[in-house]
Specification:
Blueprint: E1 5-8, H1 24-35, E2 39-43, H2 48-57, E3 63-66, E4 71-74, E5 80-83, H3 88-99, E6 104-109, E7 112-115, H4 120-129, E8 134-135, H5 139-146, E9 150-156, H6 159-172, E10 179-184, E11 187-191, H7 197-208, E12 215-219, H8 225-228, E13 233-236, H9 242-245, E14 250-251, H10 259-267
Parallel strand pairs: 1-2, 1-12, 2-3, 7-8, 12-13, 13-14
Antiparallel strand pairs: 3-4, 4-5, 6-7, 6-9, 9-11, 10-11
Length: 273
């Protein structure tokens, strides 16, 4: 095998948001890889509970990186290897700014979803994650009152606005405490720049004691740029955002052609063909 650790984004890379599952051929390839001693990790912007449910539904074991790197936990036991995020003060300020846009704003306090005003996109987001959001009268105030780490804050809106808003907020608020990216076409995410997908790769390399040259990462969107920024082999799916492809060491087949399955067979199961 050329790689001992494969770290894959979920939505648009490993599985589809509309189906909330991983196709059987890809699961079979992952199992063949892990049966040979390889390590496979799902690295997603989703909350842990959502990713955990998907993995359990197809009998995948191992580790899930949630919230882009802010939470790292075992799929089966729920054991926490790492937990981080935005401070309550920073998250509260982001929420106050986001609310001025007039769009749906949500925040994850730990692994629980909260919202202030119920707009149409909230129904879509709850369906996507297969969870229920907790409604509060003042989201920014709730964050301060709970005084807990916030995994991420999001705006849910039309595609045309989402990418422009990510750029806008990176210009006016982005920096050492918070950065903004697009986890999907209709989502703007505010996260701690210290706990990104790049951080997750570095953390897992140490955890498994695997050198970077034996690690392959796969992604499709701008929140996967961290998966491409390292000495490991970063791969963008064929229909990935062009911004991501610019960082990738390889561009592979599009999502419709099962890129994770394709890459595992190409680099890790070639002796079994």
């Amino acid at each position: 095998m050329k790689f001992d650790l494969i770290i894959s984004d979920y939505d648009g890379t490993l599985g589809g948001a509309s189906t909330n599952t991983i196709d059987k051929e890809t699961v079979d390839a992952i199992n063949a890889f892990t049966n040979k001693g390889g390590k496979f990790v799902v690295c997603t912007g989703r909350m842990f509970a959502s990713a955990q449910a998907i993995c359990k539904s197809v009998n995948l074991n191992g580790i899930v990186v949630a919230f882009q790197g802010a939470m790292i936990k075992d799929i089966q036991s729920g054991y926490s290897y790492f937990s981080g995020g935005l401070s309550p003060e920073v998250a509260s300020k982001v929420v106050e700014s986001f609310m001025k846009e007039g769009e749906q704003v949500v925040a994850f306090i730990g692994d629980e979803l909260y919202h202030q005003n119920h707009k149409a996109y909230l129904d879509f987001y709850q369906h996507l994650l297969k969870v229920k959001s907790v409604g509060v009268s003042d989201l920014a105030k709730t964050i301060l009152e709970k005084n807990q780490t916030v995994s991420k804050v999001c705006i849910l809106c039309d595609k045309e606005k989402a990418f422009a808003l990510a750029d806008k907020y990176n210009e006016i608020m982005g920096g050492k405490q918070v950065i903004f990216n697009n986890g999907a076409d209709v989502i703007v995410e505010a996260v701690n720049p210290n706990y990104t997908k790049k951080f997750a790769v570095e953390f897992l390399a140490k955890h498994f004691n695997i050198p970077y040259e034996r690690i392959m990462t796969v992604g499709d969107s701008t929140n996967d740029i961290g998966l491409m920024q390292g000495a490991w082999h970063g791969v963008a799916v064929g229909n990935a955002r062009e911004e991501l492809k610019a960082y990738a060491k390889e561009v592979t087949v599009p999502f419709s052609e099962k890129p994770v399955k394709y890459l595992i067979e190409k680099y890790c199961l070639e002796d079994e063909k």
